[in-house]
Amino acid sequence: MSVKIGNEEIQTLAIFEKATGTYARDCIKDGDSIYFVVEKGKMGTAIGKGGVNVKRVREILRKDIKIFEYSPQPEEMIKNMIPAVKEVEIKGEEAVITVDSKDRSAVIGKGGKNIKIIKELVSRHFKIKNVRIK
User: Fold this and answer.
1) 19-36: per-residue pLDDT in tens?
2) d(CA 67, CA 105)
3) How far apart are CA 92 and CA 21, in angstroms?
4) 107 and 126 fall within a common domain
5) Are 27 and 19 in contact (CB under 8 A)?
C-alpha cells in the first residue's frame, strides 16, 4: 500500500534522512510533534548512539520527535507503536487493541492525541479504517 504525502512531508523526510542516515517511509506532523516510520530493523540507526540522531533532528525541526518501526503485519506495527499492548486482533477493517486498564489513558493520550496518530498511521499503511482500545 503506498502512502501519499505532500511537499512539506517530503521536505521533513529529507531532513530526517540526512540527519539520521535512515530512510523513513512516512511522517505525520501533529502540533509540536513529528512522528516518523522507519524500515524494520532500522530503529537503532535512526535513534543513533545515545539518541544523537533524534536530538539532531529535534534541534533542526524544533519539534518533539517520535520514531516507530514499520512492519508489513499490522499487528506487529501496532505493537511497535504501543509497547503496552497485550493483544492485537484484526477484524476486517478494524484493529482491536487490548491493554491493561492502568495503561489505557496513556495509550489514548491527552484529548485522544496518541490514538489519533496511531489510527492515522495504521490506516495509511494497511486497509484498516478504525482502531479500538479494549
Assistant:
1) 999 999 999 999 899 999
2) 20
3) 36
4) yes
5) no
- Does some domain include residue 44? yes
By three-state DSSP, how is residue 22 classified?
Answer: coil
> Model confidence over 107-132: pLDDT tens digits?
999 999 999 999 999 999 999 999 99
SS3 82: coil
Which structural domain, as residue segments, surrounds residue 63? 7-69
pTM of the model: 0.92
Angle, helix 7-20 to helix 52-61, in steps of 10 degrees: 140
* Residue among 35, 95, 129 at smallest CA distance from 26: 35
Q: Which amino acid is at 119?
A: K
Residues contacting residue 35 through CB under 8 Å, at least 6 positions apart: 27, 28, 66, 67, 68, 117, 121
